[in-house]
Amino acid sequence: MGTKELAIKIKKLLDDKKGEDIVCFFIGEKSTVADYMIIATGNVDTHVKALAEYVSVELKKENINPIYHEGTAHGVWVCIDYGDIIVHVMRKNERVFYNLESIWGGFPKI
């Protein structure tokens, strides 16, 4: 599975569990951090945790494991780093406050 296909799959997994305002930006042309940045919102802490866990579990079934995974204990903002894809799942207040779209929003969406 290519990087773009994996990004699309992660976006679908988040949608399957009712993630809100899911966006996926192609940042690879201007960033050395990753090729894709995915941002999604969960309603409450438990929803944020459930979204992140679902993505991790489903991808682990395909032997796709994150390089880094942070924030699951609190469920306010979970970051999962798959190398070429970084996934942010956060509550609405944190998403508005940190406004990651202001950084990455100018990049093409998939």
Automatic annotation (TrEMBL):
This is Ribosomal silencing factor RsfS. GO terms for biological process: cytosolic ribosome assembly; negative regulation of ribosome biogenesis; negative regulation of translation. Interacts with ribosomal protein uL14 (rplN). Signal peptide: none annotated. The gene is rsfS. InterPro entries: Iojap/RsfS/C7orf30, NT_sf. Keywords: Cytoplasm, Repressor, Translation regulation. Its main location: cytoplasm. NCBIfam families: rsfS_iojap_ybeB (TIGR00090). One of its GO terms (molecular function) is ribosomal large subunit binding. Transmembrane segments: none annotated. GO terms for cellular component: cytoplasm. The keyword Zinc does not apply. Functions as a ribosomal silencing factor. Interacts with ribosomal protein uL14 (rplN), blocking formation of intersubunit bridge B8. Prevents association of the 30S and 50S ribosomal subunits and the formation of functional ribosomes, thus repressing translation.
